[in-house]
Design goal:
The complex is a heterodimer of chains A (about 350) and B (about 280).
Chain A: H1 2-13, H2 15-34, H3 41-63, H4 65-100, E1 102-104, E2 112-114, H5 119-160, H6 165-173, H7 180-190, H8 196-204, H9 207-212, H10 225-249, H11 253-261, H12 266-295, H13 298-303, H14 311-321, H15 325-350
Antiparallel strand pairs in A: 1-2
Helix pairs in contact in A: 2-3, 2-4, 3-4, 4-15, 5-10, 5-12, 5-14, 5-15, 10-12, 11-12, 12-15, 14-15
Chain B: H1 2-34, H2 53-56, H3 62-95, H4 101-109, H5 116-127, H6 137-159, H7 166-173, H8 178-207, H9 210-215, H10 222-229, H11 236-279
The chains are: A mainly alpha (about 350), B mainly alpha (about 280).
Chain lengths: ~350, ~280
């Protein structure tokens, strides 16, 4: 009798371990079921484990006393969302990698044989290497441009906005209340061959300069790499501007004034105080801009030509038009892994702790 | 000499910022202006003549209007579910110190650092070749909740970071039950954060194109409809509906900003009163 009470207490005291373990087990079960990793009678075993897992924690919460309930509470709050992410974020990544290593039975079949088909990857690199390069190049240029445009704007709002700060910040976000696609289509009309920008450039005589800079191509602005990069820059600008603004806004103006009192000139104060303190914002902004830009296909589709397609266009085309799921999945997996690697490297080099 | 240079720098940076703002608004002016255009043919891309016709018949394009309704429906359902799931996660992360919280923080950021095309295509491979759910409304809603949950959790967590949890203890010391403490103290205080996160999630859902594109089946959401039609025709109603959404969001933004400003003014006033009372 006493022995069971002691054991009971021990479980109650370690309820947090039980809660965490139960959440992990439930997630693994859902991933296994979702990806159809298990088959036949194993499915019912996994379902049984899942049910026992969920019920077991509830029983422990009901019978374990207030201490156990307090320890279990965070896991109870986390569980619904975490299990959703396990089933619809982790399991998909798993199944993506599985399909990327499978071969199709025939062109129109939906069945796949998982057979470590690494040729999907070599095909992805050999056929779509240029698109990979372009995606990373365009995204990198666009990221640099968003810093060039976003930083001064964020700086002016944060330090010179005064009481109009909130209104100015609102003005910056307003354009992004219109649909992403409509904005991009609007750009394609603005940059069109007989549109206002091209005519204005011709009138002022800037065309030759722009041609020399490889921004214009034979009098065209639309359907050039510059247009695609411009579109990416435009569409992801707020993701750069807002984090920079947040980090600039936190800076104590007295620090800059103190530098002035100590005979530092304005540009030196800016370089030594404002820039270092705004690095976390630039860092977060770079991630938030580069990642979506590298995977985008909308800008390349509406503003580019067949020679400016990015990897997103190829994935979309192979997946939805050619129904070539294995190669499309291989490209997706490569994109995911290379971005994860870049992010890790970047975090190691420039990393700041307060990212999320 | 030095002063002059600083002044010049000051003006230069203001000009750069002004140009940046102009760049941000260029397509917006264009979208609004062309909602008053009377297009010649199927594509509303060259200026012809001014007309109010499009604004008088904003819902003339049946397929576009029904797609917009579909998008609103999807956004409403997915926002409701994701706001609950995400807020619970945020509550757990900021209210309790527990084993594994740092890995969970990292896990929450993962969907945000994965390109949308990877999220969309991988989710489609999960739905492919199974016979429980067909591609359609359900798969779109599942997809939207998936990317909304992280946004909601991180937004709510950021908003309630400075929350004073001893208030809960105070309520319980005064004899409130845990349930009553939650409904009367905790929930009202974290509600603004939850509402802000919900608005963000709603906006993300309405505007999502890439992830939806991979998981939509035959359902047409507003962005998908525009994408599909853009090769054949671009009716001016697109501009009208886009302008309407824009004006509506601006109105919401303005009311919230003004009420926020009023509230902080009131707070200052109360603080001043308090000071005066105490000085006496």
């Amino acid at each position: 009798m006493t022995e069971t009470v002691v054991r009971h207490n021990r479980i109650a005291r370690n309820a947090d371990r039980v809660g965490l373990g139960a959440m992990i087990v439930a997630s693994v079960c859902l991933v296994a079921l979702g990806t159809r990793w298990v088959s036949g009678p194993m499915v019912s075993v996994i379902v049984l484990v899942l049910i026992l897992d969920l019920v077991g924690v509830l029983v422990l919460a009901a019978r374990g006393g207030p201490e156990a309930r307090r320890l279990l509470a965070p896991y109870g709050l986390l569980k619904p969302g975490m299990l959703w992410l396990a089933l619809f974020f982790l399991a998909p990544v798993w199944s993506l990698i599985r399909i990327s290593l499978s071969t199709k039975e025939s062109r129109f079949s939906v069945n796949y044989d998982f057979n470590w088909a690494f040729e999907n990857y070599s095909k992805a690199f050999s056929d779509f290497g240029a698109q990979f390069q372009r995606a990373f190049l365009y995204a990198a240029i666009a990221t640099v441009l968003t810093i060039a445009i976003g930083y001064p704007l964020a700086y002016v709002i944060a330090f010179r906005g005064g009481k109009y700060k909130n209104i100015l910040l609102g003005l910056v976000v307003i354009p992004f209340f219109t649909s992403y696609l409509i904005r991009t289509i609007a750009w394609s009309t603005i940059l069109a061959d007989r549109g206002i920008v091209v005519s204005a450039m011709n009138a002022v005589g800037l065309q030759t300069v722009l041609e020399w800079m490889h921004i214009m191509d034979n009098g065209k602005l639309l359907n050039t790499p510059a247009a695609v990069i411009g579109g990416l820059t435009y569409n992801f600008l707020p993701f750069m501007l807002l984090p920079i603004y947040v980090s600039l806004e936190k800076i104590d103006v007295n620090l800059v004034n103190a530098a002035g009192d100590l005979y530092s000139n304005a540009s030196r104060a800016f370089r030594k105080i404002v820039v270092p303190l705004s690095i976390p914002g630039v860092f977060a902004g770079t991630l938030l801009t580069f990642i979506p830009a590298a995977g985008d296909f909308v800008n390349a589709q509406f503003l580019g030509n067949p020679n400016t397609t990015m990897i997103g266009n190829s994935i979309q085309d192979q997946f939805l038009k050619q129904n070539n799921y294995p190669v499309a999945s291989a490209m997706s997996a490569v994109l995911m892994v290379s971005i994860a690697t870049l992010v890790l490297l970047y975090t190691r080099i420039f990393g700041t702790e307060d990212l999320a | 000499m030095m002063r002059k240079r600083t002044k010049f720098g000051r003006i230069a940076i203001n000009v750069v910022a002004g140009l940046g703002l102009l760049y941000l608004f260029a397509p917006i002016f264009f979208i609004i202006a062309f909602s008053f255009n009377k297009p010649n043919g199927n594509f509303n891309i060259a200026w012809q003549s001014f007309t109010f016709d499009n604004w008088l018949n904003p819902f003339a394009e049946k397929s576009l209007t029904s797609a917009l309704w579909k998008s609103l429906e999807i956004a409403a359902i997915s926002t409701l579910i994701s706001t609950v799931l995400g807020s619970l996660i945020a509550l757990a992360l900021s209210r309790y110190a527990f084993k594994g919280s740092s890995s969970i923080n990292l896990f929450l950021v993962l969907p945000l650092t994965t390109p949308e095309i990877v999220l969309g295509s991988s989710l489609a491979t999960l739905f492919l070749g199974q016979n429980f759910i067909d591609f359609g409304m359900t798969t779109i809603i599942i997809a939207h909740i998936m990317f909304q949950v992280s946004f909601v959790a991180l937004t709510v967590r950021a908003r309630i970071r400075g929350f004073d949890w001893t208030l809960e203890q105070a309520a319980q010391d005064l004899g409130a039950s845990p349930f009553r403490t939650f409904t009367k103290v905790t929930f009202p205080l974290i509600l603004p954060g939850i509402l802000a996160a919900g608005l963000l999630a709603f906006a993300l859902s309405i505007d999502d194109f890439i992830i939806t594109f991979f998981n939509s089946g035959s359902i047409q959401t507003f962005p998908l409809q525009i994408y599909g039609a853009s090769r054949v025709r671009i009716p001016p109603q697109i501009n009208v509906l886009a302008s309407m959404i824009l004006f509506l969001s601006v109105a919401i933004l303005m009311t919230s900003t003004i009420s926020g400003m009023r509230k902080s003014a009131e707070k200052q006033k109360n603080a001043r009163k308090f000071n005066v009372l105490h000085r006496k």
